[in-house]
Design a protein that fits this description.
Blueprint (H helix, E strand, L loop, with lengths): L2 E6 L7 H15 L3 E6 L11 H17 L26 E6 L12 E5 L4 H4 L9 E4 L13 E6 L22 E4 L15 E3 L5 H8 L4 E4 L6 H7 L3 E4 L7 H4 L10 E2 L4 H37 L1
Parallel strand pairs: 1-2, 1-3, 3-4, 4-5, 5-6, 7-8, 7-9, 9-10, 10-11
Amino acid sequence: MKKFIIFSPPFDEIRGGAIVLHKLCHLINELGGKAYLFPIFDNLEVNQLNYRDSFLKITRRHLRWLLKPYKTNPLFNTPVISRLSSIPSFPNDWIVVYPEVTFGNPLNAKNIVRWLLHNPYAVKKKAYFVPGELQFKFHSYIDFEPFPLTKQSSQELLVFDFPSNYYNMDGVSTERSGTAYCLRKGRHREIQHDLKNAIVIDGLPHKKVAEIFKRVERFVSYDSYTAYSRFAAICGCDSIVVPTEGTSIEQWRSDPNERYGIAYGFENIEWARSTTHLLQERIKQFETESSKNVKNFLAECHLHFN
């Protein structure tokens, strides 16, 4: 049985990447496998032009890591290995899972999985893959062709975690007013809604966001795929995704089941309202599908690396 190292930042309830990396580790362990978290660290391309900036950036982040404990979710089964000496030379029975933002193979692992949580070029505009690595897309909407000498799985590794203790209809306001909105990955896009009586939720903890969702009339997202669109709908406010230019509703989400409760564009609000009651059941399905996806992931990894 292969063992897994998940190269991950500390748990952060408002950062989707950290949440699903920790959840993957948890599900592998819950399904009878062996998985551990390893605290992520910076590994940057250094040249004569960026040497000083890279040195200072890595030093500052490393000091923050030393001074701040590595946070995990107490509800997850996520043991942590924090020293490479605990796994000398990474024998063949270990597989390391890197998120797409990781540059190359910093742990010098023999068996590598690259989990494409987003398009690899979306943030850093460059990527560094390793020959022989196995790649999984988080979702089919990630448009990225396999790189030479790597293998890209035909299966999605969609892992879902819904904080239902926050997002529900408990204590919702009978008189709603105002707008909540988020920018996140759409922070460079042009604002298309009235900012009067509008609250930006970026960076706020779940408890505060849920309180806002339960009293505002609508939520507008400039990030096409954030889970907050579903969170808002579950709290009873109109949830709108501002369309990306040149992207049709079918290109945004080809499966109508994945659009429940969310309006792609302000003109689709009535459809979103009419399907919100179906969203709760869809969320339960996501949880079931997450376990199934991880089972398939484990099977493919064992086959590929054997």
